[in-house]
Amino acid sequence: MSGTGETQDHSWLVTMLGPSRVGKTSLLTALQVAANDYFAGTPVRVEPEDEITRRAFADNNRIMISELKARRFSPLLKGDEEERTYGLTVSAGVDTHRIVLRFQDYPGGYLSTAKSSRVTELLADSPTAIVPIDATLLMEAGDDNSLEIMTGLGLVEVEEQVRIWAKTRTQAGDRTRLLLVPVKCESYFNDNGGQYNEADKLFKMVQKYYGSLVDIYRQESGRGPLMYAPVDTIGPIELMDVTWVVDDSGVRRMKPEYSVRSDAFGAPLPRKIKGAEPVLAHLVKDVLSVQDEALRLVELEADRQLTDIQKENLRRRSNWFKRFLDDFSGNHTKRKVRLEEARSKLDALNADLEKLTQGVDSLSGNDSGRVRIWP
Ligand SMILES: Nc1nc2c(ncn2[C@@H]2O[C@H](COP(=O)(O)OP(=O)(O)OP(=O)(O)O)[C@@H](O)[C@H]2O)c(=O)[nH]1
Ligand SMILES: [Mg+2]
């Protein structure tokens, strides 16, 4: 939880929620790759927390890049065999208070076995859950294959996890944010090299299959925040064909085949992630809003201006927030001079992010038409 010396690190856990092969690991590595571009020119730095994370992301990126160069995009990369945590430090220039985003990833097979309780445990400590959605399966399978769609998306299991997660956290006074992220959607948008725009149809299909999951989430979380944001984790590929195969456990699964798009000279196009910005923006905004809140409380306390109501509210907050606040204020008491500096940096950063995220929140300002407001 805490770093050493003067730097206090607070983890913000993000749990990926989806069955095997849906695209959990690809999505979280895409977020890391996209972060460098997205925050270029701002004081926000997003970096792998340690060498293990750095290497894992680099390996994954290298595999994708070399597959594309070889025009060999097979969607059959190996799945995970064990649970993993990837840390990204988000630092706002307020180096004494970095936050580590810890992405919790696991083999999707856990969801349909006794290990599903492990997923429940991982989610319990996570303010954010990301549900990757296989867009190709939703768009190509057709209503006749509803059962295969439900199975492939692990819908029953995912819904149940969302219910427990939102209920437990909300009852404990903790935050939740649910991100619905269609992936494998290169062929349904025309903003990243594709020819057709089927964004509306994709959104309708997601509403059809995830409507009850969203209802459950809203009910249990007291209408907690929700975002729909499709992401291309690869980019320059085109769906050619789908076939159906029967897997080892006798389940019919869709097997898509893709080809790699070429540039004007016939060379294969490089990886081009699209749509990750809104996801990053909201993750970092959530983290900053907690930092901002903590700093405000520390400032009030330093001036002995906390009202009785504020004190009472504070007593009701979750243990995570209390711990966070303790660390935050302890660190400042030791180094009082830093309080104003932290405030001015956080304010500047909030203003930067405000600019970056304008257009992400509203339908009209989002010209890619990717992010949608759930009705
Ligand atoms: N076309 C396309 N394929 C994708 C995309 N994201 C992931 N894939 C492919 O889908 C397959 C599964 O992706 P993973 O990220 O390994 O899936 P996972 O959910 O981590 O799977 P497990 O580790 O088995 O739980 C891989 O072969 C990816 O290359 C995408 O945006 N577009
Ligand atoms: Mg994986």
Q: How would you describe the shape?
A: globular
Mean pLDDT: 85
Q: Which consecutive residue ranges, at least 5 long each, have pLDDT under 50?
A: 1-7, 359-367
Q: Which structural class do you get from the secondary structure elements?
A: alpha/beta
Helix content: 40-55%
Number of helices: 11
> What share of residues are in beta strands?
15-25%
- Total number of beta strands: 9
User: What is the string of helix and strand elements?
Assistant: EHEHEEHEHHHEHEEEHHHH
Amino-to-carboxy terminus distance: 38 Å
Strand order of the largest sheet: 2-3-4-1-5-6-7
Describe the main β-sheet briefly. Answer: 7 strands, mixed
According to CATH, the homologous superfamily of the largest domain is P-loop containing nucleotide triphosphate hydrolases
In summary, what is this structure?
With 375 residues, the chain is α/β, with parallel strands linked by helices.
Mind sketching the topology for me?
Elements lengths: L7 E9 L7 H15 L6 E4 L2 H19 L14 E8 L5 E9 L10 H9 L3 E7 H6 L5 H8 L1 H17 L5 E7 L15 H23 L4 E3 L8 E10 L5 E9 L15 H27 L5 H8 L3 H16 L3 H20 L18
Parallel strand pairs: 1-4, 1-5, 5-6, 6-7
Antiparallel strand pairs: 2-3, 3-4, 8-9
Helix pairs in contact: 1-8, 3-6, 6-7, 8-10, 8-11
The structure holds guanosine-5'-triphosphate and magnesium ion (MG).
The site of magnesium ion has 5 residues, from α1.
